[in-house]
Amino acid sequence: MAKCAICGKGPNFGNNVSHANNRTRKVWKPNVQRVKTVTNGTVRRVHVCTQCLKSGRVSKAL
After folding, report:
1. What is d(CA 42, CA 11) in angstroms, rounded to the nearest whole number?
2. Percentage helix, strand, coil for the chain under 3-state DSSP, each rounded to 5
3. DSSP H helix total and E strand total for the chain
4. What residue numbers bound the domain in which 28 lies?
């Protein structure tokens, strides 16, 4: 799973805990999109989480 190029957000790990207290491993993955952005005057495709897109930390290319 890719990380966000802006904030560095990646997958989190933990346990699913059932009512009987059985524990199995679980992964929470961030919502990462591959987006065309303008960086240093050039258009590049980078992996960006939707929080960074929504907050305007990324300038999307047309």
Report:
1. 29
2. 10, 45, 45
3. 1, 4
4. 12-55
Give yes or no for a contact between 25 and 40, defined as CB atoms under 8 angstroms apart: no
CB atoms within 10 A of CB 31: 11
- Number of domains into which the chain is organized: 1
Query: Which one-letter amino acid corresponds to residue 40?
Result: N
Q: Which residue, 37, 54, 55, 59, is CA-closest to 46? A: 37
Q: Is residue 61 assigned to a domain?
A: no
Asked if the structure places residue 35 within a domain, the reply is yes
Return the closest-CA partner of residue 35 out of 56, 61, 57. Answer: 61
pLDDT (tens, 9 = 90+) of the chain, 62 residues, equals 689 999 999 999 999 999 999 999 999 999 999 999 998 899 999 999 999 999 999 999 88
